[in-house]
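ASSEMBLY PREDICTION REQUEST
Request ID: AP-0331
Submitted by: J.K., bench scientist
Number of chains: two
Total residues: 770
Priority: normal
Notes: Please return the full assembly, not individual chains.
Input sequences:
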Amino acid sequence: MTLTRFVTKSAFRNKRRSLLTVLSITFSLLLLTLMMTIWHSFYLDKGSTESALRLITRHRVSLTESMPIYYREKMRTVPGVVAVAPTQWFGGLYKDDKPENFFAQFGTDPAEIFKVQTDFKIPDDQLAAWQRDQAGCVVDSELAKKYGWKIGDRIVIKGTIFPVDLELTIRGIFTAPQPTITVYFNYKYVEEAVPFAKGHAGTFNILADSPEDVPKIATAIDAMFHNSPEPTKTETEKAFQLGFINSLGNVKAFILSICFAVVFATLLVSANTMAMSIRERTREVAVLKTLGFTRQSILGLYVSESITVALVGGFLGCLLAIGLVSAMAKAPGMGFFFLGMQVTIPTFLLSIFVAAMVGFLSAILPAYHAAKLSIVEGLRHIG
Amino acid sequence: MAIPISYNIRNLKLRKGLTIMTALGIALTVTTAVFLMALLAGLKKAFMASGDPINVLVMRQGSTAELSGGFDANLFPTLRTLPGIAKDAHGDPIASGEWVVVVVLPRKDGTGEVNVSVRGLMPEGLTLRPNAKLVEGRWFTPGQREIVVGKSIHDRFNGANVGDTMDFAKGQWKVVGVFDSGGTAYDSELWGDVNQIAADFDRQGGYASAYLRATDPIAADALKHRVSDDQRLKLEGTLETDYYEKQTSSGGPIKFIGTFVAIIMAIGSSFAAMNTMYAAVAYRSREIATLRIIGFSRPSILTSFVIEALLLSLLGAIVGIVLILPFNGMTTGIGNQLTFSETVFSLHLTWGVAVAAVLFAMIMGLLGGFAPAWHAARQDILTSLRA
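STATUS: Completed
Returned structure:
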């Protein structure tokens, strides 16, 4: 019998208890992995290489203020700017105001939006068809799948910010690297129907030539409009998205406190089990010592036993988390925040490491006591 | 005959370490759940208290929020003369045309920038919000670039003290007062003269919304319908209370994540409780057999162990609630999808939340305790005695 076999055998000698402990750790680690994944995608993920080339300009006062459309031509003169597309949040309702029917509608310029969103793929003929129809729109492929939309279908979007209902014909379906739950339509439609909308844009999406140009472009654009009546704020796409997350509230503290509670609870559960299981085997420890096992090796045996149990739980928890995250990332009803989220390898490894640490910490104290025990005392111990 | 509860209490005391650790595990789960429930309770309180049942909010048809409104200023005189509107001391109708805009301000604690609502209102707007009381300085003067700040803004942002200036839109604004509306959503707003705000944000010639103060709740309901039914106006009236009730939905993400986290943690804790109870049963198998011989029935043994598990979880619930007490009243902000800005509210530990927490813990105890108790009751007497 090898030592490894000895450890695994003893780790699961009380099957029910080990199973319950493993399950308890599994659920805790599932939650932990989930929280870390959210943290990673919000704060650590730098975005794709295409995304790193994009900037978004908004009105400096806030996103709800709009800028004159002529800014677009001025922006083109900034060195490094490849393309500029205006976008206007429409904020309309499809079918009803239920959250599961929420998706983004942007009024934009069909001629240029796909030159900025270089990672969005659309067949050329569909793009051309959209550009020819002012009442046409293009929709995200995942969104089309959710509602069963086909090219040629008509959708009605009820206006809330703008006093107009859009009757749009789907001219194209685009695929994005991550689902975007977005519909793009020609902004001229709104401009012609609503006088106050004419000549304004809520944001400008800009494509830069190279990543090195991105910060320079942001500074140059903001400097250009600094003294105008409508000053701007230009930031990278990622920073812009982070602003949204920040506006939700103190997300960081929220995630951290949940993680802390989960880890601590897991530690309690695991320590509890190890304490029970080692106390039960006091006599066994004495026998092992009699056979010549040193204190260190006994300590090592129990600690690795505990780590084994925690690792099994941690591994299962991570697997569950991966499944859950991919299900959430695809569900269109979940809003923007989970779109395209996935458990990365570092997150996975960190979760496994946390599980191992929990196993280690929970066993160290009872195992130390067991190892210190004198043989005679141990043999005398009554269960 | 039932086994006395003191037997269970003594047993829990006997294995102190085990009891404390398991109870703490349950406590942490309860704390998390209570924290999230208290947040929701606080949020609900802030929004529910914001509306006044006799105020009617008028917006353009189809608008879902004041931010997305906008109607011609020419309609306002018609609105003012509608029957059912209360009159002030001078005999003028209490009605206020308003604008709500959003500005970005940096948080005091350096955790980023936040969208904040700025409300432009007529002097009547202050009359129809009697809950908003000035705590420092004075109200803004119409025609001046002056603002009064809500209490939460005063507490959470730099430069929001009387005498400070704030820089947004087309220049500087002087802070002349601080008001407190008792923890409602208004406390997260900046108030100024409607014409000044409209001019600064290029919104002259219209209003985003109008507030009409009715004489009584029945008149308010009639007024609401009168506005909505008038074909010439193309406006829609809502009771202010209904409008704010709808905004409690901004707690949706907290509710969703909260329920999810609480359930997952509860499953984990139930397994842990089950472990502890199984151990308790295993240690006492001889004792249980003895109890059976003395004459205690199987059902009474089952009940006794379930009660022990429930006591354990009750202990956890109490510790969990006590752990949250220091955070009671703590304020935090949440982004509101309708107003596109931050509403500040406080953690509010209500009796309802506490009772829900105890029930939640009891369910965990029951889930964790039933199987081991069943096992204890089914034990074979002879085998147990020999063990």
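REVIEWER COMMENTS: Chain B has a mean pLDDT of 88.
SIGN-OFF: pending second reviewer
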